[in-house]
Amino acid sequence: MKQVALLLLVVLAGMGLSVEAGLLGPLGEEIGHGWATLGIFGLGTLLLTFGLVFGRTSVSALFAQPRWTLLGGVLGPVYVFALTMATPHIGVGLTMVGILFGQLAASLVIDHNGWLGNARRSIDFHRVGALVAILAALWLVH
User: Fold this and answer.
1) C-beta separation of 97 from 134 below 8 A
2) Per residue in 74-121, pLDDT tens?
3) What single-letter DSSP state applies at residue 118?
Protein backbone atom coordinates (compact mmCIF):
# COMPACT_ATOMS: atom_id res chain seq x y z
CA MET A 1 0.00 0.00 0.00
CA LYS A 2 2.88 2.36 0.79
CA GLN A 3 4.34 1.82 -2.70
CA VAL A 4 0.99 2.66 -4.32
CA ALA A 5 0.74 5.87 -2.27
CA LEU A 6 4.30 6.84 -3.17
CA LEU A 7 3.69 6.08 -6.86
CA LEU A 8 0.59 8.26 -6.76
CA LEU A 9 2.63 11.01 -5.10
CA VAL A 10 5.30 10.98 -7.82
CA VAL A 11 2.69 10.87 -10.60
CA LEU A 12 1.02 13.93 -9.09
CA ALA A 13 4.40 15.63 -8.72
CA GLY A 14 5.07 14.91 -12.39
CA MET A 15 1.75 16.47 -13.28
CA GLY A 16 2.77 19.48 -11.22
CA LEU A 17 5.97 19.78 -13.26
CA SER A 18 3.90 20.04 -16.44
CA VAL A 19 1.82 22.79 -14.87
CA GLU A 20 5.04 24.48 -13.73
CA ALA A 21 6.43 24.33 -17.28
CA GLY A 22 3.19 25.76 -18.63
CA LEU A 23 3.43 28.66 -16.19
CA LEU A 24 7.17 29.30 -16.51
CA GLY A 25 7.30 29.52 -20.29
CA PRO A 26 5.01 32.55 -20.60
CA LEU A 27 6.45 34.10 -17.44
CA GLY A 28 9.97 33.77 -18.85
CA GLU A 29 8.90 35.34 -22.13
CA GLU A 30 7.38 38.30 -20.26
CA ILE A 31 10.02 39.05 -17.64
CA GLY A 32 13.08 37.14 -18.84
CA HIS A 33 14.04 33.53 -18.26
CA GLY A 34 16.52 34.26 -15.49
CA TRP A 35 14.04 36.44 -13.60
CA ALA A 36 11.32 33.81 -13.93
CA THR A 37 13.70 31.18 -12.55
CA LEU A 38 14.71 33.47 -9.69
CA GLY A 39 11.07 34.25 -8.92
CA ILE A 40 10.12 30.58 -8.71
CA PHE A 41 13.09 29.73 -6.50
CA GLY A 42 12.55 32.84 -4.37
CA LEU A 43 8.97 31.83 -3.63
CA GLY A 44 10.06 28.25 -3.04
CA THR A 45 12.76 29.46 -0.65
CA LEU A 46 10.20 31.46 1.33
CA LEU A 47 7.87 28.47 1.62
CA LEU A 48 10.68 26.12 2.60
CA THR A 49 12.07 28.60 5.11
CA PHE A 50 8.65 28.79 6.74
CA GLY A 51 8.59 24.99 6.96
CA LEU A 52 12.12 24.84 8.36
CA VAL A 53 11.46 27.48 10.99
CA PHE A 54 8.49 25.53 12.32
CA GLY A 55 9.95 22.09 11.62
CA ARG A 56 12.64 20.07 13.33
CA THR A 57 15.49 20.54 10.94
CA SER A 58 19.13 21.17 11.65
CA VAL A 59 21.18 23.39 9.37
CA SER A 60 24.35 21.93 10.87
CA ALA A 61 23.20 18.42 9.84
CA LEU A 62 22.74 19.67 6.27
CA PHE A 63 26.26 21.05 6.03
CA ALA A 64 27.76 18.00 7.74
CA GLN A 65 26.87 15.96 4.63
CA PRO A 66 29.37 15.40 1.81
CA ARG A 67 29.40 18.48 -0.42
CA TRP A 68 28.58 16.49 -3.57
CA THR A 69 25.18 15.60 -2.07
CA LEU A 70 24.21 19.27 -2.29
CA LEU A 71 24.66 19.30 -6.10
CA GLY A 72 20.88 19.09 -6.45
CA GLY A 73 20.80 22.73 -5.37
CA VAL A 74 22.61 23.58 -8.61
CA LEU A 75 20.66 21.17 -10.81
CA GLY A 76 17.23 22.46 -9.73
CA PRO A 77 17.68 25.98 -11.12
CA VAL A 78 19.26 24.58 -14.30
CA TYR A 79 16.17 22.40 -14.77
CA VAL A 80 13.75 25.28 -14.17
CA PHE A 81 15.74 27.58 -16.47
CA ALA A 82 15.57 24.91 -19.20
CA LEU A 83 11.79 24.75 -18.76
CA THR A 84 11.43 28.51 -19.09
CA MET A 85 13.58 28.56 -22.23
CA ALA A 86 12.14 25.53 -24.04
CA THR A 87 8.43 25.54 -23.28
CA PRO A 88 7.41 28.64 -25.26
CA HIS A 89 9.19 27.31 -28.35
CA ILE A 90 8.49 23.58 -28.35
CA GLY A 91 5.40 23.36 -26.10
CA VAL A 92 4.70 21.77 -22.74
CA GLY A 93 4.18 18.26 -24.15
CA LEU A 94 7.46 18.00 -26.03
CA THR A 95 9.36 19.70 -23.20
CA MET A 96 8.04 17.26 -20.63
CA VAL A 97 8.58 14.15 -22.77
CA GLY A 98 12.14 15.31 -23.44
CA ILE A 99 12.67 15.88 -19.72
CA LEU A 100 11.19 12.45 -18.99
CA PHE A 101 13.48 10.76 -21.52
CA GLY A 102 16.53 12.44 -19.99
CA GLN A 103 15.40 11.57 -16.47
CA LEU A 104 14.83 7.91 -17.28
CA ALA A 105 18.07 7.54 -19.24
CA ALA A 106 20.14 9.01 -16.40
CA SER A 107 18.14 7.10 -13.79
CA LEU A 108 18.80 3.76 -15.46
CA VAL A 109 22.55 4.42 -15.48
CA ILE A 110 22.52 5.60 -11.85
CA ASP A 111 20.46 2.57 -10.73
CA HIS A 112 22.54 0.09 -12.74
CA ASN A 113 25.80 1.34 -11.25
CA GLY A 114 24.50 2.09 -7.76
CA TRP A 115 25.84 5.63 -7.99
CA LEU A 116 25.10 8.51 -5.63
CA GLY A 117 24.44 6.23 -2.68
CA ASN A 118 21.56 4.35 -4.31
CA ALA A 119 21.03 0.59 -4.36
CA ARG A 120 22.01 -1.25 -7.55
CA ARG A 121 19.13 -2.16 -9.85
CA SER A 122 20.25 -3.85 -13.02
CA ILE A 123 19.19 -2.61 -16.41
CA ASP A 124 17.01 -5.28 -17.98
CA PHE A 125 14.91 -5.72 -21.10
CA HIS A 126 11.87 -4.09 -19.49
CA ARG A 127 13.73 -0.97 -18.43
CA VAL A 128 15.35 -0.56 -21.83
CA GLY A 129 11.91 -1.11 -23.38
CA ALA A 130 10.51 1.71 -21.27
CA LEU A 131 13.31 4.00 -22.44
CA VAL A 132 12.67 3.07 -26.07
CA ALA A 133 8.93 3.69 -25.57
CA ILE A 134 9.64 7.17 -24.22
CA LEU A 135 12.00 7.81 -27.13
CA ALA A 136 9.15 6.81 -29.45
CA ALA A 137 6.84 9.16 -27.55
CA LEU A 138 9.38 11.93 -27.98
CA TRP A 139 9.40 11.33 -31.73
CA LEU A 140 5.57 11.10 -31.88
CA VAL A 141 4.98 14.25 -29.83
CA HIS A 142 7.47 16.14 -31.95
Assistant:
1) yes
2) 888 888 899 899 999 999 999 999 999 999 999 999 999 999 889 999
3) P
Please state, as a whole number, how many other Cβ atoms lie within 10 Å of the Cβ of residue 30: 9
Question: Cα–chain-centroid distance for residue 45?
Answer: 16
Among candidate residues 117, 120, 121, the one with its CA nearest the CA of residue 68? 117
pLDDT at 124 over 70: yes
pTM of structure: 0.80
Which range of residues forms the domain containing residue 97?
Answer: 2-141
Domain total of the chain: 1
Query: How many whole angstroms separate alpha carbon 42 and alpha carbon 107?
Result: 28
**Would you state the pLDDT for residue 76?**
86
Alpha carbon 60 to its chain centroid, in Å, reads: 26
DSSP for 32-96?
-HHHHHHHHHHHHHHHHHHHHHHTT--HHHHHTS-GGGGGHHHHHHHHHHHHHHHHHHHHHHHHH
Do 92 and 25 form a contact (C-beta atoms < 8 A)? Answer: yes
